[in-house]
Amino acid sequence: MPQPLGLRCNNAGANQVGAATSEAANKPAAAWGAVLSMALCVAMLIASEFMPVSLLTPMAAGLHATEGQTGQAISISGLFAVAASVVVTTVAGTLNRKWVLVAMTAFMLLSLVLVAAAPNFAVLMTGRALLGICIGGFWSLATAVIMRLVPEGDVPRALALMYGGQAIAAAFAAPIGSSLGGMFGWRAVFWALTPIVAINLVWHLIALPSLPARQRQDFRTMFGLLRRPYFRRGLIAAMLSWGSAFAMFTYLRPFLEQVTGADVTTLSILLLVLGCAGFAGTWASGRFLSGNVAPLLRLPALLMGACTLGLLLLGGSVIATSLFLALWGAMNTAMLVIWMTWMSQNVDDAPEAAGSLMVAAIQTSILLGAVVGGLLLDGMTISATFIGSVVLACLAIALIGNGSRLLKPE
């Protein structure tokens, strides 16, 4: 029997409300516990990767190696991170992302145990290689996983929360590591990280939802990107910029000890200044970076190279050194935001493949900087290492120019 018009309208409205309610009920809630778990993992990754910077001298003495050789503990993690960033994203296309992230965190835990207990240089390098696999695998998947943990509107806030772990570790890991290393020895610092990573591993198991594979990424997409001249130039320029940064940063402690004359307390304070400045860099880049990023691409190499040159000229002064390190630290964190913004604006048609290549490029630059800096330190002096950093910065600036050649053609 036909229903009256008003009744039909009421029924239709009820059906629409019911459908909307059903859709809202079926929509998964934001997994903020999982986001926090990933933020802690980021903090532990950064702390584990760069802790040797603040412990370089005692680690070298404890393993009966040179400071340049021990600096390669950072370069070896970069080497394996390069391979993992490319391979893991293709293999993970057929695997549940949750278990890939759990495996990466387990590798980090095993790495810390090997480094802390290392009886010789070979075991140390093995532990650092495992850490490299974790670094490359985690970073290549992190953004895509975050996008699946929260609704689309919450993705920026979730990413900021995750990168907050990086800022905290960058600010406090090095000075705390330096202080604890001075009091208890460098091995105790790595042992102290292991229970935190173990808790993080359990947290992953509890908080991360099942994340089945959605699509498989292959190498053809990556090779297609590398055939684009502007993207190729951008990757090389990014590598030179990060290579310059890490040729200096990896061997900062020997410079501060030999040139600035810093004791353990002064060293910890200077590293804290450098790290805390990173918060300012992250805030400023997130607040003021908008529109065409091309003119800003050369800014990191320009300012950080100038700070390194300033350290060479005025590094004997603690006050001047603290000023240069503050400027360097602020731009170091802003550099990641600037280059990732460039990538998002110019490779928006293949963001996952571009992200894998970008992680590989950054890790290659860390390898490049640590190797070149270590060779110059062992073969010449710490000043030669810093001069090498300035040269790499100049090459980056020359390649970038005004940034127009790194933009996608209209």
UniProtKB/TrEMBL annotation:
Pfam families: MFS_1. Keywords: Cell membrane, Membrane, Transmembrane, Transmembrane helix. InterPro entries: MFS, MFS_dom, MFS_Efflux_Transporters, MFS_trans_sf. The chain crosses the membrane at residues 29-51, 71-92, 99-123, 129-151, 158-176, 188-209, 230-252, 264-284, 296-319, 325-342, 354-376, 382-401. It is a multi-pass membrane protein. One of its GO terms (cellular component) is plasma membrane. SUPFAM superfamilies: MFS general substrate transporter. GO terms for molecular function: transmembrane transporter activity. Its main location: membrane. Residues 34-410 form the Major facilitator superfamily (MFS) profile domain. It is found in: Cell membrane. The keyword Protease does not apply. The keyword Transmembrane helix applies. This is MFS transporter. It comes from Vineibacter terrae.
